[in-house]
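One record is set out below.
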Amino acid sequence: GEYVKEMGFSHVEFLPIMEHPFYGSWGYQITNYFAPTSRYGTPQDLMYLIDSLHQRGIGVILDWVPSHFPTDEHGLAFFDGTHLYEYEDWRKRWHPDWKSFVFDYSKGEVRSFLLSSAHFWIDVYHADGLRVDAVASMLYLDYSRTEWVPNIYGGKENLEAIEFLRKLNETLYRDFPGIHTFAEESTAWPMVSRPTYMGGLGFGYKWNMGWMNDTLFYFSKDPIYRKYHHDKLTFSVWYAFSENFVLPLSHDEVVHGKGSLLGKMPKDDWQKFANLRLLFSYMYAFPGKKLLFMGGEFGQWREWDHNQSLDWHLLEYFPHRGVQRLVKDLNELYRKERALHELDCDPAGFEWVDFSDYEQSVISFLRKSKSGEMVLVVLNFTPVPRYNYRVGVPKGGLWLEIFNSDSELYGGANIGNMGRVMAEDVPFHGRPYSLSLTLPPLGAVFLKPACDVCPQG
């Protein structure tokens, strides 16, 4: 709790802590939907943990898995000698991805069981939200299946699962105002995080898997080739406001041979660390809430292994301490600057300055608050410093450099703008003024007008 608070994170999300027979499932194969796992202590110990986090001002989100359950005979499968919890038809019952059973959402008693479980964790354990795993597998009858049963209209949508998810969100938000639900939904299903009365599924937020995949693909490329993949940076803005998005760098990206975040970065160690600092800077500047799996915040080299603790000893080395300091400062900046967080899910909070400089692999944009405060973000995705790089801005006067990922505090070379730049009366990028900037190699700079609430000009 103290570490999370010191680092400036607002919430922790726990992988499923409901009882599960196989530790290697990380909790995603649940047998006991109302019992915390005994591996870490008693139910009272979990209550104490959540309470201690709350006392430090940290919210708690629990992973919850209503999409499938394991076939273990001591669990829910074939519970009373019949297919009580799962579908009777094997084409709907069997989940080929996880070798598990799927709940029969058409049964009132099954829906009641799951709704009661969701309410239980918020009511009894005081969780502040639930992240619902594998929503896409619930929505589609043909998900990962070669043989499947269409719905009554002949379509591939699981109508009873859709109805269940809407009921889940309606009742949770009704009974526990102030909580949030999060959907891990990996398809283009519309309106996942829109109210049910609009035809949505009613979730508070949806994980932005498209942003995550495009971004990690882009960062894995040698910078010399990034100009050929510039669209991976720019495309996700087209749909960034179609949902209330969370930008997830989760456990799923650092397991099964995918490598750690630091390990995914190209070239030598200097460039790997600079790239990782740039990735986090880009993530915090991009519209959407932020999610980071443990160990990423100090640049763990190894993949995550559930049988080992994190490599805390790496913090003896300055490059790792530098990444950790950068994440801490980004958390503080994100909280402090309303332009960075207030309109995360509203197109009014984002404005491109220039997305077309693919030759130099540089992008620039403005983030804005409701009252018109703004932060200019300029990102250089090559290991070459850019001098006298001109960027159009809407305001004249002094601009302050409020963040630079190349600061020596983070393990960088301190290439930047000495903390301040004066706007020039040189129209550029369709704006009346411009800044002549020094862009650090594989670096990000954030600037804001010294007089942020002054009238235009």
